[in-house]
Amino acid sequence: MKSLNYILLAFAASIGLTSCEKDPQVPNEEELITTFIYTLTPQAGGDPVIFSFRDLDGSGGLEPVIVQGRLDTHSIYNGVVQLLNESVTPVIDITSEVAAEAREHQFFYTFPDSNTSYVYTDTDADNNPIGISTRVTTGDPSDGLMTVLLRHLPDKFAAGVKTGDITNAGGETDIEVSFIFEVE
């Protein structure tokens, strides 16, 4: 009987020890991105063109506030992305987290149906693009839809990814926004 009591006591102690373990920590909990700002500053001088998307209450509820812009023809712009979580005080700048985890992130830009192109001007430690900073070049007058997408854990070594082709990137989308823009 004594040995049965010891076995039961040992079993109860092992249950108690395992139930006291801390919950597993999520190593990279996704941040809420409420605001996306893409500022394009003309290299030749002039006022920056700002595209922004702001949705403080998340999907559903109130409609997001979207600001769209007009670019000049045959111009070069230096682009910079800023991501914010404005649902908390103080506001959290998510851009710095993306930069700190540069190997795990890449922005992808598309300008279909327009005479507009871009190149990455920033890289991670492996010399692969990030896309927080870009250079946008416009051509003849056109209009179209610009889409910017941030991919988490893309395969930056897959075919075409380094030049901005998302086809083989894989990973998960952190944010995707689209803007109507004109080149005049």
Describe the model.
The protein has 184 residues and is mainly beta. Helices cover 14% and strands 39% of the residues. The chain has two helices and eleven strands, in the order αββββββαβββββ. The protein has helices at residues 2-19, 94-100; strands at residues 35-42, 49-54, 65-67, 70-71, 76-85, 92-93, 105-110, 116-120, 133-138, 142-152, 172-183. The strands form two sheets. Strands 1, 2, 3, 5, 6, 8 and 9 form a seven-stranded antiparallel β-sheet that branches. A four-stranded mixed β-sheet has the order 4-11-10-7, with no helix packed on it. Strand 1 (35-42) and strand 2 form a beta hairpin. The N and C termini lie far apart (92 Å).
What's this entry about, in short?
By secondary structure, the protein is mostly beta strands. It has helices spanning 2-19, 94-100, and strands spanning 35-42, 49-54, 65-67, 70-71, 76-85, 92-93, 105-110, 116-120, 133-138, 142-152, 172-183.
Question: Helix and strand layout, with pairings?
Answer:
Layout: H1 2-19, E1 35-42, E2 49-54, E3 65-67, E4 70-71, E5 76-85, E6 92-93, H2 94-100, E7 105-110, E8 116-120, E9 133-138, E10 142-152, E11 172-183
Parallel strand pairs: 4-11
Antiparallel strand pairs: 1-2, 1-5, 2-3, 5-6, 5-9, 7-10, 8-9, 10-11
